[in-house]
């Protein structure tokens, strides 16, 4: 990257170089937030362009992702350098090396994290009673963290959060997906073991007997057990490792709320059609045993739909719940909204909101409101606001 030179205070003469040089430049305009971070750093500030050849290029900082797009400009920009040979006349001169009629602009965008699940699904753990060897031909070793970083269009911070949210663990330098249904069954067993080995009702126990019991009684590889303990821990359980003797004695302080949530997700996946919500919640409470007080259907937002009971039901009948995961919806906003309105019309705003995740950056309410205003027609009645599809044309 050429170093910019300050212009002379006197008049300057612009000339084309004596020899024809094939030099082409792309000028990148940095947003104020990135520029501020760069200026505040004493060391190097990484800016990484990510994506496959078929992807639209994005630029990632350590914490954010930006779409790179080309923008035409009305005033041409001259890329100039000082001449290689000094000017004998003593005049200030610059050589024109390139003329740019466009610049590259950075637009904030949400990371494409669903590709994590897509790439890792073929080599996902098969469940209790299975080992760790994936059964995929060409990619027997699966994906490493470094390989994943090269193809997932997300910053390091966003990728780390996305990996954890999708229950991906790292074992033997490769990433392993733990599917919700399989993971939920394992967590139910771990809850029972936690109740056996815990003291005074607290959700904390030594990890060694739990890992050994899972291996001896349920054929769960110790590497999987230790990884799940790390994943569902509120302490520094990142230090938990499996050595050659299997001798572990690190205390596990369980993240019981997240465990209850994942068991609920697993139960949702087993639904075939609609089920009464009260019956589903009863099964969920039974599955989490001593931690039934943590069960809350709102923990599963973005994974289900609730519908009113049929007219033939009694006045006090429970709503019907059905499995409807947001991660299976298209990433293109227009198609996402079209699919949602084909599923239900109208929507209550609070019901649709969880299914818009991934279309805008986390916490960017302005971008969310722009999307809603583009694809949604708001109608207000006695019951409040309702969302209908906005008609085009």
From TrEMBL:
One of its GO terms (biological process) is DNA replication. Keywords: DNA replication. It comes from the Eukaryota. InterPro entries: Dcc1. GO terms for cellular component: chromatin; chromosome, centromeric region; Ctf18 RFC-like complex. Belongs to the DCC1 family. PANTHER family: SISTER CHROMATID COHESION PROTEIN DCC1 (PTHR13395:SF6), SISTER CHROMATID COHESION PROTEIN DCC1-RELATED (PTHR13395). This is Sister chromatid cohesion protein Dcc1. It comes from Dioszegia hungarica.
């Amino acid at each position: 990257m050429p170093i910019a030179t300050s212009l002379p205070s006197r008049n300057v003469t612009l000339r084309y170089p004596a020899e024809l040089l094939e030099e082409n430049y792309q000028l990148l305009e940095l947003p104020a937030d990135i520029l501020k971070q760069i200026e505040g750093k004493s060391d190097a500030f990484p800016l990484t362009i990510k994506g496959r050849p078929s992807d639209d290029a994005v630029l990632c900082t350590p914490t954010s992702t930006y779409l790179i797009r080309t923008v035409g400009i009305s005033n041409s920009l001259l890329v100039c350098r000082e001449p290689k040979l000094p000017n004998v006349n003593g005049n200030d001169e610059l050589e024109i090396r390139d003329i740019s009629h466009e610049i590259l602009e950075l637009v904030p965008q949400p990371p494409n994290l669903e590709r994590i699940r897509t790439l890792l699904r073929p080599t996902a753990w098969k469940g209790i009673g299975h080992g760790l060897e994936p059964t995929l031909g060409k990619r027997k070793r699966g994906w490493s963290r470094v390989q994943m970083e090269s193809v997932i269009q997300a910053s390091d911070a966003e990728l780390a959060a996305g990996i954890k949210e999708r229950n991906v663990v790292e074992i033997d330098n490769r990433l392993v997906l733990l599917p919700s249904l399989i993971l939920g069954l394992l967590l139910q067993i771990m809850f029972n073991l936690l109740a056996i080995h815990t003291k005074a009702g607290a959700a904390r126990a030594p990890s060694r007997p739990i890992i050994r019991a899972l291996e001896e009684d349920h054929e769960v590889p110790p590497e999987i057990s230790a990884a799940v303990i790390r994943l569902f821990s509120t302490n520094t359980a990142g230090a938990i490792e499996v050595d050659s003797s299997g001798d572990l004695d690190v205390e596990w302080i369980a993240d019981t709320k997240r465990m209850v949530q994942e068991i609920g997700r697993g139960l949702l996946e087993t639904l075939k059609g609609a089920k009464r919500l009260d019956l589903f919640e009863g099964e969920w409470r039974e599955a989490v045993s001593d931690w039934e007080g943590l069960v809350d259907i709102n923990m599963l937002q973005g994974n289900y739909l609730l519908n009113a009971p049929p007219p033939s039901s009694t006045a006090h009948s429970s709503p019907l719940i059905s499995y409807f995961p947001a991660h299976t919806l298209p990433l293109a906003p227009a198609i996402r909204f079209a699919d949602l309105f084909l599923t239900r019309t109208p929507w209550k705003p609070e019901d649709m909101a969880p299914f818009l995740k991934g279309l805008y950056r986390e916490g960017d309410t302005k971008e969310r409101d722009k999307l809603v205003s583009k694809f949604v027609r708001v109608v207000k009645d006695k019951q409040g606001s309702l969302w209908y599809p906005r008609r085009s044309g």
